[in-house]
């Protein structure tokens, strides 16, 4: 048996998936034409699975500043900041982010994944306790495994469940860190942050919010869920990424807590990685300025999200519990989801296929992310295509049998039940877009 | 096996059934991952359900050293007596 023998079961599952004619894990784009269009196997394809929320990957100013940074400062830093030193632009990017979040401190990491790894593994040690939402992103779980703090999971988006678990450890010494996400990346639901803040205060814990999917998306100024909920002062650490709204790659953490800067000498995923290249940081600074200067992108993104979410829901699909730019169609049978995903790609629409065990409840999701760069025509094309295939697959009633809109309360209840403890269809609005 | 332990095993199977949604016949020498067919997420959900059943805290790294049903029973007994 080779060293790869331990992956036999995983390999067998992957083979089975490939035999069905679809391989969602190796989609290749021959070309990318814009923030929302690419070419797959020679066919122009609409992109609905990019997390490119503000549509800034082809922003003219960002591209020019990025190219300019390469010409003046080279293609890479070729090492870590503690070994090779920092460039001016590292400090500038950290200043811009701290200013945007109105915080005193900012540390930039080479990826969003590393931001979570670096912060979570370092902030809490073996005598502390770490509390994670059960549906946390892999980077949060991996950060918890890299560190030494005992890890306690609480039920997804359930502040009472968190309180119960904090109470059980109330007489233990050490600090407590609670980690939640602004928007959860699979179903697009948001955390009940005000209630989490109440629990955090009651138990004297620290609170970290990962705003990866909510930066540039939620809040009047785009700072995310904490801004929208008016609880920024109670969020001790905000982590986020440049690879979504800011259209590049990298991650960050901002905080106003005294003593934060020592983490630069304690956080191993920060210390022992090559720092971001100047071109990436330049385009990121440009994108952040655009995010701040052009709130209309956020308005358009919200309108696009509503149009897509309401359109799919009205067609009869089981969608996630809340309308955010992440719009997930829940399909009970993973094999059907794979076939559906493949048909969409064949017909010119790309989205993400999420399969168990990465999904709650063993169901599969056709997971879209809406962009401000989508036009109404793009969204209508996507709704119509998904509806046609949904009928063909028998997931939706045939056209002649469609019930009057809006869908019944019973159906909404079913959606909420799939999503467990989440509130029902918040902000979904009524009827079709 | 003591009556107390039998009772504990019965309680553990009860919890497990709510996690895997099927009837389970537990033996102390069973391997939790291989014999019960639990993936990593199912193990974590099982852990969370056990915490609530016994009103204890089982940090994930404690769960990592649990291999058999007997290990689990001992871990729960130890955590309960510390509570």
UniProtKB/TrEMBL annotation, chain B:
Coiled-coil residues: none
Superkingdom as given in the UniProt entry: Bacteria
Domain Carrier: 1-80
Protein name: Acyl carrier protein
Organism: Methylopila capsulata
Lineage: Bacteria, Pseudomonadati, Pseudomonadota, Alphaproteobacteria, Hyphomicrobiales
